[in-house]
């Protein structure tokens, strides 16, 4: 199991080695039916569930790609996990990144 944290430490662990920045990037586009249904929903206002679901899927994919990158470096944890998003013409970009580290359980 690979540990992750948005903070720069893992409780009850100490960092033994830093392996550098890891990232996972995905770019998603909307299909015509999704765009059409979402556009209809925007006419009435409120939460556009179909777009929110697409965003959540993109976040999860970018997170899993970051985890795979960390594992490939030999990390057992990623600290300082962050997301960044950016609009692209007809698509959305989601980047998940952090610092890959090797941690050991702290002894008392």
How would you characterize this protein structure?
The chain is of the alpha+beta class and 108 residues long. The chain has a single domain (3-105), classed as Translation Initiation Factor IF3 (2-Layer Sandwich). The protein is built from 2 helices and 4 strands. The chain has helices at 32-44, 49-72; strands at 3-4, 13-29, 77-88, 91-105. It has a 4-stranded mixed β-sheet.
Brief summary of the model shown:
This protein has helices spanning 32-44, 49-72, and strands spanning 3-4, 13-29, 77-88, 91-105.
Question: Helicity range of the residues?
Answer: 25-40%
Question: Looking at CATH, which topology would you report?
Answer: Translation Initiation Factor IF3
What's the architecture in CATH terms?
A: 2-Layer Sandwich
Low-confidence stretches: none
Features:
108 residues; alpha+beta; Translation Initiation Factor IF3; four-stranded mixed beta sheet; 2 helices; 34% helix
Please outline the helices and strands.
Elements (H helix, E strand, L loop, with lengths): L2 E2 L8 E17 L2 H13 L4 H24 L4 E12 L2 E15 L3
Parallel strand pairs: 1-3
Antiparallel strand pairs: 2-4, 3-4
